[in-house]
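pasting input
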Amino acid sequence: EAGVTQSPTHLIKTRGQQATLRCSPISGHTSVYWYQQALGLGLQFLLWYDEGEERNRGNFPPRFSGRQFPNYSSELNVNALELEDSALYLCASSQDRSLGYTFGSGTRLTVV
Amino acid sequence: AQSVAQPEDQVNVAEGNPLTVKCTYSVSGNPYLFWYVQYPNRGLQFLLKYITGDNLVKGSYGFEAEFNKSQTSFHLKKPSALVSDSALYFCAVRDGRYSTLTFGKGTMLLVSP
């Protein structure tokens, strides 16, 4: 069974540009979660998508947005990049709340 | 609101000795508790979970955790540490209403030979 896949692995952008990160959940998982892991800040919840709808959002500005496609894959968009957006962005999927999440390996975003 | 505290940024232990990584939580309802491990430049790997039932939960790689409702704790333990256990460990909690996991800041475990 394929795990959660994220692309690209690394992404380098210039301040002010836009970044698009992609995530494919485990087959059969309908929920996708996005987390930001910045140095020293632990994991911060960004977004939760389920059945194509945004279900919950963390305390991030509106320039962080995303969507979930009919095949349950997801995209995270970050507009007007700032230096402090540099982080590891982790995607996770789940099928059942009680089973926890399965994480991908992440996308390392560097803003210069 | 739900929250998780991992009071130690780093835990050092010698190989072969028992290890404990501490976690306390706060939720409004019944907690769903999890431990994950992260190796350098990798995503998080699931170790174990507590949903209901026996307070002592056994997980992957010989790890176990004890749920203590009165102390709102869920400490991770292993009887005999290995150098390969060195990694970043995260405790997480969710309650049914929020359904998203809230993570602690993580504890770096360093096991010396």
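fyi The radius of gyration of chain A is 13 Å.
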